[in-house]
Structure to design on (194 residues):
């Protein structure tokens, strides 16, 4: 027993440093690129679903503008009795609707993350990234709009058209969030990280 005294090893939790705070390496290791990708796509659908459904706020104004077809729109709006207040409110609702859709998608993403015990900060990253792409207008909506609005445009009624298009986009976003295949794809990263 005349050997060296051994220094006792202090056990540490695997995700924290010696001071009890999560280390940067462990923080980055918990970021799930699969969740970022899947939930980003779902947020994209929510943004555009809410924007599409926002046209229902004043469908008469939409019909009037469509009938004008770029010709003397101000005169046609005046003849129909459209007020400046109606235009401002319509612009307001259609402008903020995408952001409202993003907030709803973020809340769903966060609730899913908490329920499934995924790293909650992934939802924050998705919110920030999607908002940045949304504000920079780089979500490729003008190109995709023709595809996703195709079914609704077969209707001659504007209300039915925007309702069908918005609900299709919303349904796709919901399916992406809650589909078992999507969640299994995300959880593959969780299993690999353990």
């Amino acid at each position: 027993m005349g050997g060296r005294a051994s220094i006792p090893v202090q056990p540490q939790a695997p995700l924290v440093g010696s001071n009890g705070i999560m280390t940067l390496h462990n923080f980055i290791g918990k970021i799930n690129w699969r969740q970022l990708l899947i939930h980003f796509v779902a947020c994209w659908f929510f943004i555009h679903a809410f924007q599409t459904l926002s046209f229902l706020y004043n469908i008469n104004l939409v019909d009037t503008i469509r009938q004008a077809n770029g010709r003397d729109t101000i005169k046609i709006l005046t003849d129909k009795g459209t007020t400046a207040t109606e235009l401002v409110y319509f612009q307001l609702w259609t402008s903020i609707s995408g952001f409202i859709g993003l907030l709803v998608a973020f809340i769903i993403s966060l609730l899913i993350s908490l329920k499934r015990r995924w790293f909650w900060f992934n939802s924050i990253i998705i919110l920030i990234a999607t908002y940045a792409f949304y504000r920079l207008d780089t979500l490729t909506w003008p190109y995709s709009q023709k595809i996703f609005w195709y079914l609704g445009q077969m209707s001659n009624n504007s209300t039915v058209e925007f309702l069908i298009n918005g609900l299709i986009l919303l349904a796709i976003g919901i399916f992406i969030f809650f589909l078992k295949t999507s969640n299994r794809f995300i959880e593959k990263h969780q299993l690999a990280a353990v």
Q: What stands out?
A: The radius of gyration is 25 Å. DSSP finds nine helices and no strands in the chain.
